[in-house]
Amino acid sequence: MNRSGKTAxxxxxxxxxISASSIKVNEATLDEDTLxxxxxxxxxxxxxxxxxxxxxxxxxxLQQSLFAPDEPDLHGVIFPPLPAKLIMSPQSQxxxxxxxxxxxxxxxxxxxxxxxxxELYLQQVAxxxxxxxxxxxxxxxxxxxxxGKQRAKKGIFNRLSQVMEEKRKESHKDVDDFFQNERDxxxxxxxxxxxTTERFLDVVLAExxxxxxxxxxxxxxxxxxxxxxxxxxxxxxxxxxTSKVFETIKxxxxxxxxxxxxxxxxxLDLQSRYQEAEKxxxxxxxxxxxxxxAANKNTERAKANKKGIMxxxxxxxxxxxxxxxxxxxxxxxxxxxxxxxxxxTALVSWCEQQLNTATEIAALYSEHLEACQKLPEE
Amino acid sequence: xxxxxxxxxxxxxxxxxxxKAEEESGDDDDDDDDDxxxxxxxxxxxxSEEGSYPGVQEPSVDNQHASNGLRSxxxxxxxxxxxxxxxSLDRSSTKGxxxxxRSSPSAxxxxxxxxxxxxxxxxxxxxxxxxxxxxxxxxxxxxKVGDGMNAYMVYKVSTQTxxxxxxxxxxxxxxxxxxFLGLFEKLSEKHAQNGYIVPLPPEKSxxxxxxxxxxxxxTSSTEFVxxxxxxxxRYLHRVVSHQNLLQDPxxxxxxEKDELPRAVSTQTLSGAGFLKMIxxxxxxxxxxxxxxxxxxxxxxxxxxxxxxxxQQLRKLHAxxxxxxxxxxxxCGNTAVFAKSMAxxxxxxxxxxxxxxxxxxxxxxxxxxQLHQEQASNDFFIFAELLADYVRLLGGVRNCFDQRIKTxxxxxxxxxxxxxxxxxxxxxLWANKPDKLQQAKDEITEWEAKVTQYERDFERICATVRKExxxxxxxxxxxxxxxxxxxxxxxxxxxxxxIKYWEAFLPEAKAIS
Lengths: 378, 512
Hints:
Order of helices and strands of chain A: EEEHHHHHHHH
Radius of gyration of chain A: 27 Å
Protein name (chain A): PX domain-containing protein
Number of helices of chain A: 8
Strand order of the largest sheet of chain A: 1-2-3
Number of helices of chain B: 12
Oligomer: heterodimer
Pfam families (chain A): PX, Vps5
Keywords (chain A): Protein transport, Transport
Order of helices and strands of chain B: HHHEEEEHHHHHHHHH
Family (chain A): Belongs to the sorting nexin family.
Radius of gyration of chain B: 28 Å
Largest interface: A-B, 58 and 58 residues
Distance between the termini of chain B: 80 Å
CATH topology of the largest domain in chain A: Substrate Binding Domain Of Dnak, Chain:A, Domain 2
Helix content of chain B: 55-70%
Shape of chain A: elongated
Organism (chain A): Denticeps clupeoides
Number of strands of chain A: 3
Number of domains of chain A: 2
CATH superfamily of the largest domain in chain A: Arfaptin homology (AH) domain/BAR domain
């Protein structure tokens, strides 16, 4: 699942003919009121480029196609999270509802952050040892026709955990310490990550407001100087310099916010959604456990004639549960590795970009300071 | 009053006597507590013009007698110009502000903000002698005296100087806010009518002071006191950087004398009240202006410029205010985010990641500090600068109005003279010798007045021109000094930020 995808590109017998790291979601254009994404990728065999146009429905179709209900082991997979749908208003302005729903993904120029999130999603699927073998991915990436017209099967993404009566199963005690720990940690971390992401969003929004306010101040001063016919040339010069200073301040906030969004913001958002995906998986397993334990009880209580049937049912469930659990174990290990790697990448690029911006701005301030000091004294 | 012999003994003492006479007349009444009981409208609104201001003496024709003494002051001006110690303004105001250190308004302990300002009075290079005199003034140690609604703040005003006109080289006094207002009133009375731009003191504020009196120890009252302290300091700097005002014994007394008589009419006197007075006077004057034939457009144009500038600065002040608030928001949000991040770091299993996240939380905390300081700088360096100048421009406008009043007085005298002459003519015709003599006497009297008022008018024209030029120069330098100071603080902040990022990078890279 790591982004650099150095060694994970080629998978023996993976069935995917596309190089995972070459998948790029380039841009989004608005066609009436539907967003159309342009996706490019490269064939593994000959490096030939492929380009397709897809809508959000196509992505949804992919997500739902990944799950096959008759493969019980698949229940133990942590499915890469697909971002929620981005609704663009006609003036392509972000409204509060979108901001609440999508957070960082709603920010950034021309849906850039959102495109990156979709790109990450596709890459995660392409890098998954099992999911990448699903033909649906290949279809999405290479077919000339968009596949989303087919009504996909309902599948597991009904957010079981949101159904009230299912909720009490969430706290059902586990038979395995490993999983009990994992569930507890996940619960804790999911909540914390969500809160942290929201608060970071508040920081970024404040930075954006400061950028606008600085620009306003800079323009106001400049407007004044241009209008005024003053004989006081020295004063006009100083005001112009001041206007430039605030222009730089605006640039500072603008760039800082951009950096925040594209690195740490995106990173935290992905963490948050992935943790939710893990939660889903763990919950599925817990539900299966509840089913199994119920079946056990039924078997014990069953009368002699029914016992055989009950046992069979129980055995099937047990097999499913075991298969699921072993898959889950693998997935959990993989999840932690990749989530740490993802966060590392986010933090490093965040730090590097902010450092660059800070250095650039410092140089600009220096220039301004020199220029102001050179102004003749009256 | 005891005084060391000032630099210009003869003229100085004469001036001192006349001014002394004036002072004593005004100080007898008892006035209540400083800020209490004043108009309720001033509040925190910087430029509220609602303050009631009944007691101010508008320098008017009625003050003819008092002005006798003042005229000699004007005569002194010429002597000052040839003085060996030229009080040059440029470098003084530059230095004065450069060395002021600001403290964050959130700092709880404000009992001794040390903001010193150095002012060196140096000669411009063209002059021959090389005398340098220094004058440093600091306003520090705000202290609350008394309890409840009768409480007031006292500030320590410390002076260090080599100017011979002071009794010693270093001294300090305690002054309360109404003392500053009292100083302004005296200076305004004496000098405004001669066309000098008298600096305005900071605003009174019922809301701000009430919080302080009530004993609220929160950041907003701390901020208020700091804001006021800084404003009072800037006010004094401006007063002493004006060569004529510095020579005024009231200023010396303010800086030196241990106990000042309580300032009286400052009960309703405030910057806002003064502005209101100016505006009322302006309205009256506007009616006169129509009649005034300007031979020189300079005054009209300048006044227009001044009015435009005042409007512009008000607008800018509002924009800067918004900026300050946004920055405070950012501060708050950063602090909250840092806490979340710290909790996240604590819950993280992976050791290296956990450490990196905790580091991140610390970096964000430090950034919050930076934002906080920057907000304070935005405020003290810019917002207050703009606010000061809006007030000062009001003072400049007043100058112009005074000139027109002076012109009016001259015109009125001329028409009175004309009437007297007509009376004389009638008496001559009617042949009433006894009344004739009286008429002749009156004519002589009024002829003298006309001459005097004409001279006054010419003098005030010259003064206003000079003052405006001086003001413009000072304004340019003031703004320049402030923008440089602001840039320096931005640069320092930025460099610290770079260090934080550089320190964090290896931690982030160490994650595995």
